[in-house]
């Protein structure tokens, strides 16, 4: 008997109740999968090793189909790339604990006409994509996430306690579906998680409270990283990266602060790429600007900006004092979305660039990382003391 899970309607929560409790990881089978165009429709056949709970939705700008599943190892799904001109890109990876996400970038808006999981014989997710009016597609893409799936709401400013303890929020860049830069099969995401843990240990050893935006190799949207910092009452936010930079020959640590005007084209490209990675992973940042819009937020930023500038300077001084390699322009500015907290001084530190052979060697060296962690901890300490002193002057 053929058993088919009912097709899930777009953006309607896939019935967990009916889904069997399956904890083991399912594997994707590339050889038994494919994409083909037929009679104006695009058929996707994804074979996996066992049935899993799943759901499908669409997102716009660029048009995408997002397939969320209970853990599926989608490795080699990119081998389906190029099988249909309607699907211009595929990427997949862990999304949130226990869930994987597969994102298909479409050449144009398309309707999900049918979505089924066949469980008789080989387990297959079958999707049929067809033509759709772009306006209708945009409407479907704009449907809100189900409550239990939505991102945490940012904590209102007023709810944060006045005399809060000094808390450092470390933000290991990228993760999960978004590996960041890659070199010799080592990803920026894993290197930065390692470094964040090492820096956390150094800071905790000095009695500083530290939180991480992610503790494992999962995707955390940029907006959720900001929300997490606010929820934990962070005094300062440090995003850690080691990107690849094709533009110019970037080498050495660089401290970035937020600005609408980037220091140079390379910085701007870097910031745009981070936003694009986030977008491709399925999160739309457009609402972020609504959240942080408004006069109050701008006022908060006016107060925060000079504190952030001093933070960047303190970090530059500490890293230089430790005799660690810095970029010839050690402090730079760009429109990194992850730095948009209006009230928390936020910096993005490229501890080096994976595109530089010398930096790559250094970042992979545990001893070098230990020195860098100490330097950053020193910089944070100097800044925290100075910041507290200046605040005391202002509010005696
Ligand atoms: Zn990065």
UniProtKB/TrEMBL annotation:
SMART domains: Ami_3. The keyword Transferase does not apply. Residues 1-19 form the signal peptide. One of its GO terms (cellular component) is outer membrane-bounded periplasmic space. It catalyses: Hydrolyzes the link between N-acetylmuramoyl residues and L-amino acid residues in certain cell-wall glycopeptides. Keywords: Hydrolase, Signal. The keyword Hydrolase applies. Pfam families: Amidase_3 (PF01520), AMIN (PF11741). Gene3D superfamilies: 2.60.40.3500, Zn-dependent exopeptidases (3.40.630.40). InterPro entries: AMIN_dom (IPR021731), MurNAc-LAA_cat (IPR002508), N-acetylmuramoyl_amidase_3 (IPR050695). GO terms for biological process: peptidoglycan catabolic process. Residues 226-381 form the MurNAc-LAA domain. One of its GO terms (molecular function) is N-acetylmuramoyl-L-alanine amidase activity. It is an enzyme of class 3 (hydrolase). Its EC number is 3.5.1.28. It comes from the Bacteria. PANTHER family: N-ACETYLMURAMOYL-L-ALANINE AMIDASE, N-ACETYLMURAMOYL-L-ALANINE AMIDASE AMIC. This is N-acetylmuramoyl-L-alanine amidase.
């Amino acid at each position: 008997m053929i058993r088919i899970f009912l097709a899930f309607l777009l953006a309607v929560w896939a019935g967990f109740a009916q889904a069997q409790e399956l904890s083991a990881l399912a594997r994707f089978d590339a050889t038994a999968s494919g994409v083909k165009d037929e009679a104006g429709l695009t058929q996707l056949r994804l074979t996996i090793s066992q049935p899993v709970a799943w759901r499908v939705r669409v997102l716009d700008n660029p048009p995408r189909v997002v397939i969320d599943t209970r853990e599926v190892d989608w490795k080699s799904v990119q081998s389906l790339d190029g099988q249909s001109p309607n699907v211009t890109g595929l990427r997949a990876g862990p999304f949130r604990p226990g869930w994987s996400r597969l994102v298909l970038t479409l050449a144009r808006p398309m309707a999900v006409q049918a979505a089924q999981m066949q469980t008789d014989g080989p387990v297959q997710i079958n999707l049929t994509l067809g033509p759709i009016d772009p306006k209708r597609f945009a409407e479907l893409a704009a449907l809100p996430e189900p409550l239990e799936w939505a991102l945490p709401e940012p904590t209102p400013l007023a709810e944060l306690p006045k005399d809060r303890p000094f808390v450092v929020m470390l933000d290991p860049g990228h993760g999960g579906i978004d590996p960041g830069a890659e070199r010799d099969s080592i990803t920026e995401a894993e290197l930065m998680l390692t470094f964040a843990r090492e820096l956390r240990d150094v800071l905790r050893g000095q009695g500083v409270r530290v939180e991480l935006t992610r503790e494992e190799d999962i995707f955390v949207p940029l907006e959720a990283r900001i929300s997490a910092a606010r929820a934990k009452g962070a005094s300062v936010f440090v995003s850690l990266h080691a990107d690849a930079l094709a533009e110019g020959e970037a080498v050495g640590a660089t401290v970035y602060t937020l600005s609408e005007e980037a220091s140079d084209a390379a910085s701007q490209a870097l910031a745009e790429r981070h936003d694009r990675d986030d977008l491709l992973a399925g999160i739309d940042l457009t609402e972020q600007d609504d959240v942080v819009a408004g006069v109050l937020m701008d006022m908060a930023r006016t107060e925060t900006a000079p504190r952030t500038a001093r933070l960047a300077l303190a970090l530059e001084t500490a890293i230089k004092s430790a005799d660690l390699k810095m970029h010839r322009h050690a402090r730079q500015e760009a429109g990194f979305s992850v730095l948009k907290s209006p009230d928390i001084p936020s910096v993005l530190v490229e501890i080096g660039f994976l595109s530089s052979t010398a930096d790559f060697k250094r970042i992979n060296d545990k001893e070098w990382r230990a020195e860098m962690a100490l330097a950053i901890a020193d910089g944070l300490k100097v800044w925290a003391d100075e910041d507290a002193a200046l605040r005391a002057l202002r509010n005696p």
